[in-house]
Amino acid sequence: MKEPDNLPRLKNWIEEGVSAVRVTGLSGSAQSYYFAQFLADIKSPSLIILPDRKEAER
């Protein structure tokens, strides 16, 4: 499966020390897939904040 185009850019920002990144435009299972791919390679703790409980439960 192809990695999302912006995923390497996001990983670079985090590795360079950017403390906050906002990701928008993902819906449905794309959110879960994107963040699973992202978190699998990040070596630092991450905090994911979603707008409401319903989104968090997905």
Helix content: 40-55%
Number of DSSP strand runs: 0
Oligomer: single chain
Instruction: Describe the sheet with the most strands.
Output: none
The N- to C-terminal Cα distance equals 22 Å
What is the CA-atom radius of gyration, in angstroms? 12 Å
Number of helices: 3
Percent strand equals: under 5%
Number of domains: 1
> Which term fits the overall shape?
globular
The assigned structural class equals mainly alpha
N-to-C SSE string, H for helix and E for strand: HHH
Mean of pLDDT: 78
Which stretches of 5+ consecutive residues score pLDDT under 50?
Answer: none
Give a written overview of the molecule.
The protein is mainly alpha-helical. The chain has one domain. The protein has helices at residues 7-15, 29-41, 53-57.
Structural features:
mainly alpha; globular; single chain; 58 residues
Question: What's a quick, concise take on this entry?
Answer:
The protein has helices at 7-15, 29-41, 53-57. With 58 residues, it is mainly alpha-helical. It has one domain.
